[in-house]
Each structure stands twice: as structure tokens, then as C-alpha cells.
Amino acid sequence: MKRYQALADTMAAEIRTGRLPVGARLPSVRHLTTQYGVGQSTVFRAYYLLEEWGLIRARERSGYYVAPGAKLSMPPIPPMPPTPLAEPAPIDVSSLVFSVLDAVKRPDVAPLGSAFPSPALFPLQRLAKSLAHATRMLDPWSTVTDMPPGSEPLRRQIALRYIGMGIAQPVEELIVTNGAMEALTLCLMAVTKPGDVVAIESPCFYAALQAIEHLGLRAVEIPVDPRDGLDLDVLAEALDKHPVRACWFMTNLQNPTGVTLSVEKKRALVALLAKHDVPLIEDDVYGELHFARERPPPAKAFDTQGLVMHCASLSKTLAPGYRLGWVAAGRFADAIRRLKLMTSISTSIPIQAGIADYLEHGGFDKHLRKLRGALLAQRDAMEHAIARWLPPDVAFVRPDGGYFLWLQLADHVDAMQLHRRGLEHGINVTPGPIFSARHAYGNYVRINFGHPWSPQIEHAMKTLGELLRASA
Amino acid sequence: MKRYQALADTMAAEIRTGRLPVGARLPSVRHLTTQYGVGQSTVFRAYYLLEEWGLIRARERSGYYVAPGAKLSMPPIPPMPPTPLAEPAPIDVSSLVFSVLDAVKRPDVAPLGSAFPSPALFPLQRLAKSLAHATRMLDPWSTVTDMPPGSEPLRRQIALRYIGMGIAQPVEELIVTNGAMEALTLCLMAVTKPGDVVAIESPCFYAALQAIEHLGLRAVEIPVDPRDGLDLDVLAEALDKHPVRACWFMTNLQNPTGVTLSVEKKRALVALLAKHDVPLIEDDVYGELHFARERPPPAKAFDTQGLVMHCASLSKTLAPGYRLGWVAAGRFADAIRRLKLMTSISTSIPIQAGIADYLEHGGFDKHLRKLRGALLAQRDAMEHAIARWLPPDVAFVRPDGGYFLWLQLADHVDAMQLHRRGLEHGINVTPGPIFSARHAYGNYVRINFGHPWSPQIEHAMKTLGELLRASA
């Protein structure tokens, strides 16, 4: 551990134990250099780290103070051990994933393991109105004209949202799909054949692992740090060493870590892949759920080669269960349109018409602001519950959006066992190993804060704490 | 050619040339045995064939008479040449299929090449009402509970329709899909892995060929006679000779031939596959469009082993563009449910709810009766147009349902060229070679009679006749 990290950890402990209370001014730089025998830059780097962890705040011309709520914060997640570059390998994860997913439907189980936010957060009645109106007005011939690439009015509405991100997205390259999952799979099919190597993240959204397994591909895993995301050095090495045919990455609010790549890293990623002429399948289904002032741009924003296939949907932002997604497919648009026609004929025509109507008239941006506010409040409630109920050796990086927390548990905890024991107690946590081709992350779980706070969830967190303490 | 076939052909020519006019009594059996030097049974078999062709009708205790409209009938399709059992082969048909399908969207082209009936034949307003009502009433949690296998109320409604066919279909084995296409692909994925051999029909629905190509499977083609369907002897030979892992057959109103397997052949097919423990993927999307008194049963009705996966949809019978299908998956239900979850998460929840509401309250059977009546009238109009405009060497077997005619053209006609020339003249016919892994059926086309008769269609048929005569 570097000296500045050790110093930050020491000061974090002072804050968490209450010896430095909320609002207290931190000791001066001079004081700390003397006290700990370190240089000024070490002190500053420790400050920056504490600030990043949300423990302290700078006040202009006045120094650093302990941040409100800091006492509730968990220890920061330790740096991940350096991952050796794995050989591309076939994946066998599906049966594990299914056994975990099958528990989600049980209504008696607290939804900490859910992959979705609460359906109560969505404007379902307003959507129903748009769907009813659009279906009543539907031109019978739209069953033909709205086949892939999809309804033109809908694709125009989607293109407008890209303009909002500063992207001039040609309508012709937008293909409407049955949710983002279909978009991602079609992209993968369009640029690979069985046996090919695909670069994925580690930890990785389990459905990507399943898709790769299902299509007979091999995967090389690129580590994702919960604080700054994908390791581009390892990716560069992988691109040099292996015949990587495609990358499948989540650039914003990555599942499960919640990390968002900085604009600089996105630019560098796009440039690196352009150099190798490797397509990027960009999974950006959470980007709209940011808590920052501005929506983080996708890597697609920096793509000048048509190499980025930007996949998104409304399943997590507006219309769960409608199954409406799309891909901005760049140079692969025609191949993907044909694959879509071949494998699922079309996305439901009334759904396309209803969503187009909503996007034009329904007030999507107003809904999004409300949804983000709700998720932010739920994140804070969840952090409080963690501080209240979970043992102090549970660590996480606070996500700046979405509805997942990626919890690092004590080394000895077996997340698979915790998952099983949890189900017996009416809790479903998503165990780390399903996010890894090699069943790594044995002491990690993902928990969902997408549900309005309730006594059931509070109780579930208390029970989770008891189970964790019992496993010690 | 057998003697009874030669005799039938001779008598058919008498009728078509008008020497035996409509309503005329046919010569007696005794007269014919003497005139042609054949046995009584040969005469009777010739009579049965003429009756099957729609040229003559029996009157009880009075003999056979030339049927009304017989003069308009085309020459019967000659027996197909015996097909040698092909070696299983990889398929490369997709690019050909796409170039043909891409023309369907052009509004200036007469829809003879369409794969769908006219959307005007469906109760779109009544469906819109059900969709609006069901979506307004939707339980937000249905986004979770209606995930695969799908909405329980919908699956109960679907199970009721099986009861109408005399099949006690367990609701648990029904999986709702995005149309039949997804159901069929999931079935194929569930029982094969790349390189496996699948038995398919020849001619074969082109999407089956595409799915097999796309999944890296190999195909062995079993000939389908337009009069009595699949050749079970060749199938038995294929099952003995090759490691067939699955069959994909259309048992009712096969696409493109329109042939329906007899109950006896369905029983024999199920028994043969049970003997070899080979699953049947049964594509039954046209069965409800029969013109017979009763819906022809699917092969599933005779399955006692759970080996038949019966796939169907409402895309051709009720709700085009809604993308609502299902599979009655027998022993493969759980595998298919998981594959569905993995590849497309869920079928659109509002669509499931809307269709469940329609099936319960919308009057589906009444609509079906009306639809069948319309298609029957359109078939007759198409047959008249063929007789009026196409050269006399165009042959077909009259289909007893659906909305396709499989036309055998003169030997010298190149259907691919006819397709291209047709597009230049505003006609789209579906060329035979896309229905074959080996690009056979070079002088066949499929035409669609699913559209209410119109001057555009009449004109298209006239143009088609001119193109055919010009190609002579």
C-alpha cells in the first residue's frame, strides 16, 4: 500500500470512529507532514482520496471538513489485486446464473437480488394512455412498414435523444429491438462466429457471459476497478496478444460495479479500438440513471469510424416489460437489421407505436428527473442501512447513478453460500461469482437499491447483517 | 407414371378442353375399362385423383360429374421426381432470402410475394381495445411475474384452445414467445449444438433454413409432395442413416406447398420419431386457417412422450405485428424457458396482457370463421386469375387453407429471373430456390392470396402471365 493510501485509511478511521466528527475541520497540511513524517504531496493525495470516498469536503480558502453523513460511510473498497491476462476461454456460467435468477420471481423474497428497479417508479398509466392512443390510430400497414429497422417515427424520437447527448445519430443506423438484450446479442452475432475471441469486463454483466457461452465464443476478461473502471492497459495488451473480434463493455454505471468511465478514458478506449479496427458493443442501459448534473456521454460520442454499436433500452428508465430497445449500429446497421429480421421478424408494432407516442408527448425528461431523484434517495437509504446493520468490514464504492451496490465482503465470506442462506431467510442477494467467467468474486455480492425504502428491505438488511456476522 | 395417373391426366384434359363440360356425367366405369384396357381399380383411382384435383364430384348412387369451375382448374402438379437422400450439408441461403424479403416493404409492388395476409383482415380495433384495457389494468408486478414462461392468464387461454383440439395441454409446458419464429429458434437451440444434423422439409420454409445456417447446423432434406406431404419412407431412411438430432416440420398447410399431413401420417410420424427418440419441432402457424370443417390436429395430439414441441402464433390468425407466439414444449419446457430468459428476457408484458384479454372476451372463433371465409374466397379468385391470365402449363395443387399457392411453372422458366423481372414490373413473387437448401425448385414460385381481391392484384396476375409467356 502506498503511503498516501495508508494515511487516508488512518484518517478515515478517525472519522468513522467519531474522533473527527461531522463538520470538524481536518488538521492542516503542515501539521500532518510533521505528525506522520510524510511530504506535502502525500498529504494532498490522501485528502483527494478521502474526498473521493465522500468522507471530507473542501471549502474554498478554508481547508477540508468532515462531510455530512461521513460517519455512515463504509471503508473504501481496497484496490483489486492485479489480474494476470487470462487466456481466452470458453464460458460455462449459465446454469449458475439460472439458479440465481429463478429466485427473483418469489414474491416473499426481498428484492435485493433483483435486476430491475421497482415497477412502481415508472409512469405506467401515462404509458398505457400512449399505447392505447397509438394502437387505436395504428395504420394497418405499419405491420409491414415498421418491420426492421423499425418504426420511423420512433427512430426519429430516439435520434432526438442522441442529439441531446451531442451526437448526430443517423436515423438509418438505428435498429429497434426487443429490449437491449436482443440488441447486444444481435451485435455479437453480427461481428463474430463460433470460436472467436471477445473481450469482456471482469466483473461482467452475467447475461454477456451467457450470450458468449451460447454463441460458442471465447472470452478474455479485462479487469474493471470499481473506482475508475476498465483497465485500458490490460485491454491494450489483450488486443496485441489475442485475435479479439469484438469488445462488449458497459461504459456508464457498469453492472455490477456502478463505475462510469471518464470522458478521457472513453476517448482513449475508442481510439485504441479504432487502431486495432475492433468493434465495440457498448451496453449503455443505465446511462440515463446518472446522479450527476449531465448525462455521461457514451463512447459512441467519440466514434468517427462507425465501429461503436451503442445499445440501449427503455426497460430500466421508462417502460419495464415493454421490451423496447435499440442499437445505433454504425457500419454494422444493415447486417444487424437482417439478423433481426431473421431471428425475431420484428419488434412488436403496437409497442413501437406506443413508445413513439410517449417519447413525443409523455414528458420523458420530467419522468427521468423524478426517477433519478428517487434512486438517489434510495441509494442514501441503502447506505444508511449498510452502516446500521452490516459489519464494518463490508466495503463499496458509492455509485453515481443506477440502482446497484457492489459489496465487497470479508475475505472469508462465501457469497454463493450467503445467497443460498439468504433465500432461506427471505433475502435474495446476487452472488459475485455469476459476474465472472471464472466464478471469481467469491466474497462479493450485488444488491439492488431500486425499490422504495420499506420495512421489508430494512428487515432484509438487518437479516443480511446477522447472516454475515454468523458466518464470521 | 402409373396407369391410373395417366388415365386421370387424359380425362383431366377432356374436361379442361371443354369436351366434357361442367355438369356432364363422366363415362361409366365399365365403359372406361373397355375403352382404355384397364382394370376397375385403375378407373376408381383415376376418379379419386380427379376428385382430389377438384375436377369432378360424386353424386350419391348416380356416378361422377364434372365439377363447377372445373374448366378453370390448372393441370395437376406432376409427381415430384424421386429425391435421393442427400448427405447432411451446411446451408448457405440467407443472402438469397434477404434479397427477396427486402422487396416486400415496397408499397408500389403487388403483394404476391408477401409472407403475410392483408392486415385489413384482422380485428385491429377490437385488439386495440383489449390492449388498452389490459394495459390500464396492468399490475405493475406483472413485469416480474409475466417473465418466462409468461403470463399465466394468457397461458390458460392458450391451453383452452388446445382443449378445443382435443389436447390436454399442461399450462406449465406452455412458454410465451415473440411470435412463432422465436419459439422455433429456441426449440432448435434447446435440442442441438453446432454441427448437429436436423431433418427439414424440401421445399422448406426459408426461415428454417436461415435458422439452421445461423446456428451452424447441418440439414438433411426430406421431400414434401404437394398432395400428401412429407415422405415418411425417406425420413425413416434418414433416421437410420444419419445422427438426426431434431426434425423441423410443418404438419398443417405447409409453407410453401400448402399440404396438410393426414391424421394417419401424423400418427406414423410421431411413432417413427418416438422409436428413434428424436424430437419434433412442429411449426403449426397456419393450422387455424384451414378450410375444412374441423381444424386439422397437430402431430402433438398423438405425442405421448413429450417429444413434440408444438409452435404456433397469432401473427397469421389474429394479431399481425403483435409478435405473440408460444410453444407447447413437452419435456423440453424448462430448457426452453431458460433459453428464452437468457436471449430475450421476456415477451412484451402489455402485449401478453392485451392478447389474454382478447382471447377471453374478443370473439376469436367468430373472427377466425370470417377470416377463413375471406381467404377461401380469395383463393378462388386467385385460381380464376390463374386460369384467366397464366399459361396453361402452370400447375398447382389446390390448398385447403392458408394463403399460399405453390406454382409449378414450365420447365424452362427461371423463377429467380422471373422474381427480378417481376419487381421491375411492380410484382413480387417468391422464387422457389429460397425454399431449398440446395437452391432447387428453379421453376417454382409461391404466390400469396392473403389480400382482398383488387384491380392491382388482377393486373399483377395479368403481368405475370405476360412475363411467363415472354420467357417461353
From TrEMBL, chains A, B:
GO terms for molecular function: DNA binding; DNA-binding transcription factor activity; pyridoxal phosphate binding; transaminase activity. Keywords: Aminotransferase, DNA-binding, Pyridoxal phosphate, Transcription, Transcription regulation, Transferase. InterPro entries: Aminotransferase_I/II_large (IPR004839), HTH_trans_reg/aminotransferase (IPR051446), PyrdxlP-dep_Trfase (IPR015424), PyrdxlP-dep_Trfase_major (IPR015421), PyrdxlP-dep_Trfase_small (IPR015422), Tscrpt_reg_HTH_GntR (IPR000524), WH-like_DNA-bd_sf (IPR036388), WH_DNA-bd_sf (IPR036390). Coiled coil: none annotated. Residues 1-69 form the HTH gntR-type domain. It comes from the Bacteria. In the C-terminal section; belongs to the class-I pyridoxal-phosphate-dependent aminotransferase family. PANTHER family: HTH-TYPE TRANSCRIPTIONAL REGULATORY PROTEIN GABR, TRANSCRIPTIONAL REGULATORY PROTEIN. This is GntR family transcriptional regulator. It comes from Caballeronia glebae.
